[in-house]
Amino acid sequence: MPLDTSAYNLALLRVDGRRWNELRRVHAQIRTQAAADGSSYLEMGHTKVMCVVTGPSEPGPRRGGAGAGGGGGSGGKDAEVAVSIVIAGFSSVDRKRHGKGDKRTLELQSTVSNALSASLHTHLFPHSQINISLHVLSQDGSLLAALINAATLACVDAGIPMTDYVAACTAGSTSTYAANDEAADPLLDLNHQEEQELPGLTVATLGNSDRVAVLVCESRVQVGRLEGMLAVGVDGCKQMREILDRVVREKGQRMIQEGTVERGVGLNDMDVD
Amino acid sequence: MPREAEPSLSERQFVLQALQENLRLDGRELDQYRPLELSFGDQYGVADVTFGRTRVLAKASAEVTVPYADRPLDGIFNIATELSPMASPAFEVNRPTETEILLSRLLEKTVRRSGALDTESLCLVAGQKCWSVRVDVHVLSHDGNLIDAACLAVVAALRHFRKPDTSIEGGVLTVYTAAEREAVPLSWLHSPFCVTWSFFGDEGETAVLDATRLEEQVRVASCTVSLNKHGEICQIAKLGGVPVDAVALLQCTAVALTKVKEFSELVDKKLAEDVKKRDKGGFMAELSAENER
């Protein structure tokens, strides 16, 4: 595919006109499905993801290996986080059927499930199940990051106790693995075109800390580049956390203003006008 | 669906407390591998890897087939993993568990997508004939750290493998038997190896290499790094689990590089030994009627 990101060096602008440390436009909503326990809709650039959370509830009949178990099985003392991901056929440029048993999808499911069950207080809900279903409507890079962010928002909406937000984003590097140029810049938040061409990784951190919950790199890259990419990625996750936090707070304020919920004791420090 | 027996509470506590004091049940250092053995079979392309009580066998094979329509210039390269009930009662035939899916994805990303094997060299007649190379991974005994063992076995098997020599004359493809022409090795570009870290403790502060099955059952997170000896990362997978400090992960990668260089040396050494063993002193020596009796 003759894509051209080599123009970066001329003006230090990327194919979509961003600087190296800029995120794409993030638009997020929570409580999009009125009937669900928790739901969210998230756009990162042109990557669009919908998420619905059901539970914690009594585990239903086991589906054949679909949702990868995170919390040690539904019969255990922790709630099981079952994730199912549906990638719509129309989500990418070339229309592709993604079967249920697609290994890549199963890997994504197990990653989202394990990432969230470390942050969710699953020990509060023994013998139960938290169902997270994610729908990918449009793909333009950073898919795993968008899935994790959307799932985090939906879990917040469902009111499941959790340690902190699990915020994710991607980072890349302007050099290819072969070129050993020292001047390679790290890049934040790759789109599909950059993801195809440049080495990159997905990072998810817990809240405002430097602690990495998910780190996935699928391309060949010099080991020396990792530090720069990881630093930019972790920084991006902090920005992402702020964005997610703002979405949750704005929705909360609106719900108080509309009288959907009563103003709670803990909300006194929020300035609601 | 049978479930794996979980370690008892006291067993769990014993392992974890020992690890807090930087001790392991088998007396190893935290970043020490179990005794590692690699042997090749009589046939080309069979590698048997043993890490303590974990044993993985990989067998490479090749056949001539039609290439995929969308990739007429590439050969076909597949890695098949099967975890049979022989390794653990939790594994069932024809019903891949999460472990199996993650293992096969990791091997695929490490060996296939990093371009370790030059698939273009497997093309015989563009769009019509190509080699299809397949590696079957069999887990014979499962005592933890399947990923590192399987990856080492796959790489060793492929580097040991020889495919029959071929020639094309006037559009006719001839595949020669080993007696007619010496089989040729695959065009191999670099050797990636996996190194898996297991993390223990509330914040994943204790990092351990080559976890046994018991340690794997009580760990809070794991991170697999695939590198080659030139210091290129082929893949990193920390798929969830308890969050670990970013700086600690960077240190883990640095240590992984030294381990990968050791693996690389080991495979090179064993391959050289194997070549020496197979070399009977040329064609004349092979034809001679003398034998040891």
Quick take:
The complex is a heterodimer of chains A (273) and B (293). With 273 residues, chain A is α+β, with helices and mostly antiparallel strands. Chain A is 28% helix and 25% strand.
List the helices and strands and how they pair.
The complex is a heterodimer of chains A (273) and B (293).
Chain A (H helix, E strand, L loop, with lengths): L7 H4 L14 E5 L7 E7 L2 E11 L22 E8 L15 H17 L9 E10 L4 H16 L7 E8 L12 E3 L3 H6 L2 E7 L4 E7 L3 E2 L2 H34 L15
Parallel strand pairs in A: 4-5
Antiparallel strand pairs in A: 1-2, 2-3, 3-5, 6-7, 6-8, 8-9
Chain B lengths: L8 H12 L15 E5 L5 E6 L2 E12 L10 E7 L15 H16 L9 E3 L3 E13 L4 H15 L1 E2 L2 E4 L2 E4 L8 E2 L7 E8 L5 E4 L3 H6 L2 E7 L4 E7 L5 E2 H33 L3 H6 L6
Parallel strand pairs in B: 4-6
Antiparallel strand pairs in B: 1-2, 2-3, 3-6, 5-6, 7-10, 8-9, 11-12, 11-13, 13-14
Helix pairs in contact in B: 2-3
Family (chain A): Belongs to the RNase PH family.
Pfam family, one (chain A): RNase_PH
GO molecular function, one term (chain A): RNA binding
Description:
Chain B: Residues 32-164, 191-257 form the Exoribonuclease phosphorolytic domain. Chain B: Keywords: Cytoplasm, Exosome, Nucleus, Ribonucleoprotein, Ribosomal protein, RNA-binding, rRNA processing. The complex is a heterodimer of chains A (273) and B (293). Chain A contains five helices and ten strands. Chain A has 273 residues and is an alpha+beta fold. Chain A has one domain: Ribosomal Protein S5, domain 2 (2-Layer Sandwich), CATH 3.30.230.70. In chain A, the strands form two sheets. A five-stranded mixed sheet of chain A has the order 1-2-3-5-4, with helices on one face. Chain A has a four-stranded antiparallel sheet with strand order 7-6-8-9, sandwiched between helices. The longest helix of chain A has 34 residues, at 225-258. Mean pLDDT of chain A is 84; it is low at 64-74. Chain B is of the alpha+beta class and 293 residues long. Helices cover 30% and strands 29% of the residues of chain B. Chain B contains six helices and 15 strands. Chain B has helices spanning 9-20, 98-113, 146-160, 213-218, 246-278, 282-287, and strands spanning 36-40, 46-51, 54-65, 76-82, 123-125, 129-141, 162-163, 166-169, 172-175, 184-185, 193-200, 206-209, 221-227, 232-238, 244-245. In chain B, the strands form four sheets. In chain B, strands 1, 2, 3, 4, 5 and 6 form a six-stranded mixed sheet that branches. In chain B, strands 12-11-13-14 form a four-stranded antiparallel sheet, with helices on both faces. In chain B, strand 1 and strand 2 (46-51) form a beta hairpin. The longest helix of chain B is centred in the C-terminal third of the chain and has 33 residues, at 246-278. Chain B is globular, with a radius of gyration of 21 Å.
